[in-house]
Amino acid sequence: MHLDARTLQEQMTAFVRAFGLHEPEQTPCGQPMSASEAHALSEIARHAPTSQKALGERLRLEKSTVSRLVARLEERTWVRRDPHPGDGRSALLALTPEGRQAADRLEAARTEKFRELFAAIPDDERVAVLHALTTLTRALDEAALPETTQSPARSVNPMETDAMGDSARAGEIGLWPIGSIANDVTEVKPMRDAGRRS
Question: pTM of the entire structure?
């Protein structure tokens, strides 16, 4: 195989389409929501109560994009805004009972999807796949940084995690980095300010 930027682009495009990341109204695991809504729902489920600013930092999205995203989740009655006890001008995001049910369905479907995908990868290629995802994520992060702030990133060895013993966890490693590609596909504007990342 000839290796160059065009080859990378073609392989990434093939992956996005095969995995279903280009579907605007459905997640790769078949849930009826966009990829950006799924990411936001999961983050709020993990970290509630959380501020909209913190959500944007975790998702690497700009303020205006997060505002629209939260508004869509509110329209679906999945998220509510509670008063911030320390800041009268701010609110904290939390899931409604309907939102918790949606988040639980999403987590169950996602776990099953990645169990199936993990099982389909030959045993002797799993470490290489996880290492490739780690390398790709690091490259994306480095490319997003201004040249003056770039620094060598630590090489992450997939064997340092417990992923190889837990197929669901291994799937999670693959989901979130590639999920940022879905944001581009669904026309969500990524935040490029590295200083605001968590």
Answer: 0.71
